Structures are given as structure tokens and as C-alpha cells.
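W.,

You were right to be curious about this one. When I first looked at the sequence I had no strong expectations either way, so I just let the prediction run and decided to look at it fresh. Below is the sequence, 213 residues in total, followed by the output.
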Amino acid sequence: MLVPTILSALSLGAMISAAPAPPQSPAVFKRASGSLLAMAPKSNTCAGAQFAAECKTAKEAAPFINASFKTYGITSNGEAAAIVSLMAFESGDFKFNINHFPGRPGQGTRNMQMPPFNLEYAKSIPALKDGLAKAGTDVKAVLALLTANGEYDFGSAAWFMKTKCSEKVRAGLKTGTTEAWKAYITECIGTTVTDERQAGWERAAKAMGVPGH
């Protein structure tokens, strides 16, 4: 089985490839090439970012996204494209990781998870045990534990797919169809399909080499 990997994001020519991983299933997807910048066009710079301390460029984000694919077993280009497009949409192309609009306390990470999911996610990370004990019921403090670490911050979307999306939704994403992506948005993420979200999906799917895009 191959794991989709964003190798670099230094330029529009930066390539997304697939790195070998130990076989875990008979499914094998084709290698793909593309650019993280093609998926999140505004991630080329943090100059002038409204929330500069939260901003990450594509170059900075790529290693964390790679790590999340490996950690949470994201094994198809369709799944990877869905995850990246979700993060790009929710964070303004990685410009922020806290909900500023309208400013819901405790909501954040790159896929703008709600506080209950952030707590569950944080509890799944052994290194945060002591921090969580100190945070208690403070949703902002829990979020801060996640956003302070790039791997955790960018790993939440892959964690959510692994733990919250049904096998049916994930199997659909592996086919790479737009209908399957719509099911991911409505049935797993629990929100509405919009033209802007779909445009982001199409960019990511094309960059990842998902068939039909």
C-alpha cells in the first residue's frame, strides 16, 4: 500500500508523490503528482496575514500533512485530496487555526474542529496527558495544546477521517468521485456543500491526480 505524500511546496511545481509503506491491505492506488500550492493557492506566503502567529505557508505545512497521512492511515489520493481541501477551506489556506469568525471558543485546528472533538483528539495523544490534566474543562486551553504543535494542528483532519467517517464514506472517497466527496462533507463532516468548498475539492483532486479531475 502506498501513502500519498506531499514532498515539497516550494513552488507551483512542487510535487505530491506517494511514499511506500508496509502493506496493510490489498488496495493499491496510483502514484500522483501535483502541488500543495495548487490546492491552497494563498499558502505561498504569510506576509500580511491577519493572524500572523497562526499562519503557515505550504512549505511549512507539507511535512505535517505528510505525517498525518502516515499516522492515521490515509491510503488513497481521494481521501488525501478531501482532507487537504477541507483544511484549506476552513483555515483560509492555512492562514489561521482558531475560529475567529464568529469566534466560537475552543473551536480550531486546521479543520476547525468543535471543542468536543478537540478534547477527544487530544486525549488520543499520549504526550498531551499532563497538559490535559491542567487544562481541565477549559476548551481554549485544550485547543492551545493542539495548535501549539504543528503535527497535532495539521493532524486533526486525518484523525477525524479515521475515527469519525464511515467505511462507506471512505470507500467512496477512494473512487475519487465528486458525489463521494459530497457524501464526505454532508455525512461525515456534517456541513453543507457549497460552490467554494467544491472548487477547493476540484483543485485538490486535480493536483493529487485523482481520476476524472
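Here's what jumped out at me. The chain has ten helices and two strands. And, maybe more interesting for your project: The longest strand covers residues 2-6.

Coffee later to discuss?

I.
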